[in-house]
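Protocol step 4 of 6: record predicted structures for both targets in the notebook before any analysis. Target 1:
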Amino acid sequence: MLHDIPESEKICFCGHELTRIGEEKSEKLDIIPAKVQVEVHVRPKYACRHCEGISDETLPVVKIAPVPSQIAEKSMLSSGFLAYTITQKFADALPFYRQAGIFQRSGVDISRTTLSNTAIQVFEKLSPMMEDVRRELFKSKYLQIDETVLQVFKRSRKI
């Protein structure tokens, strides 16, 4: 952002125009909140106007591109959305019910059940790759792991 003095102040007391001789910069960190948007995928359909798309079997011949592959079948969530919510859940310890509440305040109605079920689909698809990673890890002579516990439910001290 440029913060300049008004044109009227760019005149010296002697009457001559001031010349820019440099600048001073300062930097500030800013946060741009996550923005949820709808991705619209369009798949044009094609048919022949000459023969009206009737094949030998008297079925209309219509061609359309296949639905793009996605990690969670028939999900309304993009791969970026899934990566975001799964990272929030497992790297930042933010449960799905809290994420659902955050999305709700942003005007996006998505249930924690949807987030959970979709995450399960992702893990099922990635399990072969995770098994490969596990095999590679166990080829090593030793492993270093962080075994810090994460409290999921607060246990009551009442008996």
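Target 2:
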Amino acid sequence: QTELFSFAAMGKLSMAAAILCMALAAFAAANVVEAAVVEHTFVVHEMNVTHLCNTTKIYVVNGQFPGPQINVTDGDTVVVHVVNRLDHGLTIHWHGVRQMRSAWADGAGFVTECPIPPGGDHTYRFNVTGQVGTLWWHAHVTCLRATINGAFVIRPKDGRYPFPAPAKDVPIIIGEWWELDLIELDRRMADGNFDDNPLVSVKL
């Protein structure tokens, strides 16, 4: 009787373990299905813009200022192909994103990577599991971040918020506007060479 009881107990435990494994596999499969790969291509180039009655050469992504907004969900994988059509090297930094085992995708120029050379390209790939928030991305070499930037929104998986659901999301980006080429601005800042005609800086 003792042996029969042991076999019966082992059978129940094996069945429970099998059910648990099946449940975990189903849960993992559901998470895999929910997660997505969000892919963008950023072409960085020059563009003339007239603002405050002055036409200025600026640096933009895909002809947009601010740049494209990235919308993802917790758990997604982000893939961004950057094509550099400038005469200067640059990197793109994902401000506020925790790079978990993907530090090489952080975009900190001369720290985690060398700048993307003129005419070159680079692909950033990272995951945003366990992260939620309204962040931003920007160039991370010289003063290019003044115009090469955009919103980076990570929404929760279940779509729930700790406040009444908003009718609409309108990210507001506050940046700088200079009446001077940003590369020249960077040179002057590095040399401490500002003349008596100060640059105009406004919030957009």
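Step 5 preliminary note on target 2. The longest helix spans residues 2-34. The beta strands are 37-51, 54-61, 70-73, 77-84, 92-95, 121-127, 133-139, 149-155.
Proceed to step 6 after PI sign-off.
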